[in-house]
Amino acid sequence: MTATDPALTALTQGWCALSLLHGRIEAHIERALQTRHDLSVREYSLLDVLSRQHDGEGGHLQMKQVADAVVLSQSATTRLVTRLENRGLLERYLCPTDRRGIYTNVTETGLRLLSEARPTNDAALREALDAAARNPELAPLVRAVETLKTTPAPA
Predict the structure, then answer these.
(1) Are 49 and 70 in contact (CB under 8 A)?
(2) Of 50-59, 68-77, 130-139, which range is least confident?
(3) Long-range contacts of 30-36 (CB under 8 A, 24+ apart)
(4) Which pLDDT band holds residue 4 (cuts at 50, 70, 90)?
(5) pLDDT attached to residue 89
(6) Residue 110: which residues within 8 A CB-CB, separation 6 or more?
(7) Is a pLDDT exceeding 70 seen at residue 117?
(8) What is the distance between the terminal CA atoms of the chain, rounded to a whole angstrom?
(9) How many Å apart are CA 91 and CA 86, to the nearest integer?
(10) What is the pTM of this model?
(11) Which of 14, 100, 120, 149 maximizes the CB count within 10 A of its CB?
(12) Are 15 and 9 in contact (CB under 8 A)?
C-alpha cells in the first residue's frame, strides 16, 4: 500500500470520522456532567465501572481491569481513584484474602452522585448522537452505535 492508495485513504477517512464522532460525544457529555454534577467523563466512567463490582468470586476488579475499562493508564487511573477518594466518592481497603491486593469501592455518596448523574449522561449521549446523525459523514457511524449489541467482556 502507498500513501495514495484508495483503500488506505478510505480507511484513514473512516478512522478520522470515528475519532471525530467520539470527540464530539465526549465533549458534549463532559460539559453536561461538569455543569450539573461537577464530574468529568472519566470520573463518571470510573464510578460507573466500580459500581458494577460485587462481592464474591470475580466480583472486584484489579486496577489493570479498571484502567482498561476507563481507557486510562494504570497510573492515571490511580490518580483518578485518589482524586475521587479525596472527594469521599470512593474508598480503598485491603483484600481480605490477599493483603497485597487493594480494592476500591464506591461510597454511598458516590453511588448517590452516580445515580443523579446517570440521566444527565444518558441525555447528553442521546443529544450528541442526534446532532451527529445530521452530519452525512457521521450518520452511518451513529447508526452502527445505535444498533450495536454488546455483552460484558470476560474478566
Answers:
(1) yes
(2) 50-59
(3) 31/124, 32/120, 32/121, 32/123, 32/124, 33/117, 33/120, 33/121, 33/124, 36/117, 36/120
(4) low
(5) 97
(6) 47, 51, 84, 88, 89, 90
(7) yes
(8) 37
(9) 9
(10) 0.84
(11) 120
(12) no
The type of residue at 109 is T
Q: How far is CA 76 from the centre of its chain?
A: 14
Q: What's the Cα-to-Cα distance from 80 to each of 16, 21, 59, 61, 86, rounded to whole Å?
A: 28, 25, 21, 15, 10
